[in-house]
Amino acid sequence: MKLILLGAPGAGKGTQAEIICEKLNIPTISTGAILRQAMKDGTEMGLKAKSFIEAGALVPDEVIIGIVKERLAADDCKNGFILDGVPRTIPQAEAIDAMGIEIDMALDIEVPDEMIIERVSGRRVCSCGASYHVKFKPSAVEGVCDKCGQPLTIRKDDEPQTVLDRLTTYHEQTEPLKDFYRAKGLLVEVEGTGTVAETTEKVLKALGV
Ligand code: AMP
Known about the structure:
This protein is 47% helix and 14% strand. It is an alpha/beta fold.
């Protein structure tokens, strides 16, 4: 299964990816997580990405395409993968096509903007990649990751003004990907407004697993 997850920031892509990757035993490739790790490590790529991320803008396509090319060449991607948060622009989608990768499905999780703002304000993340919500998906112990025990943090780009900028970026640059994949017959849309479990049920049904 070569799956692309589409949807606004905070739609639940990462949460559903965690569940699907465990069920199908395939890796999730999250460019956002890779970039955050690079920023934490202070690498050249991290330094380059920082200003874009903190402004709620997109990191240049050539940086993203480089990351994806390198990551998808790894052994663990041989039996499939989930792309979470990439592609985010038409040139990124075209680059994935040009790599000769045949995507099976582009699954779009639809959530209206008002709900996104509410969700993102309660989001807490761990550097291991796990993601929580204070109300909708709390960790067992407040502020501590269930998976690895590290402290949870608030993403800097989840601040209210940055979220509005990220939503504008999403509508302008990422949403056109729906038509891109619809034209290829690969787009499947699911409503992501319910609980995590309700959305998971819809997602798994769409995947036929
Ligand atoms: P995410 O964790 O997917 O919400 O990504 C966090 C931020 O990283 C985004 O707001 C962008 O600034 C940057 N980013 C992640 N993935 C991409 C991508 N595919 N293209 C451009 N920028 C990206």
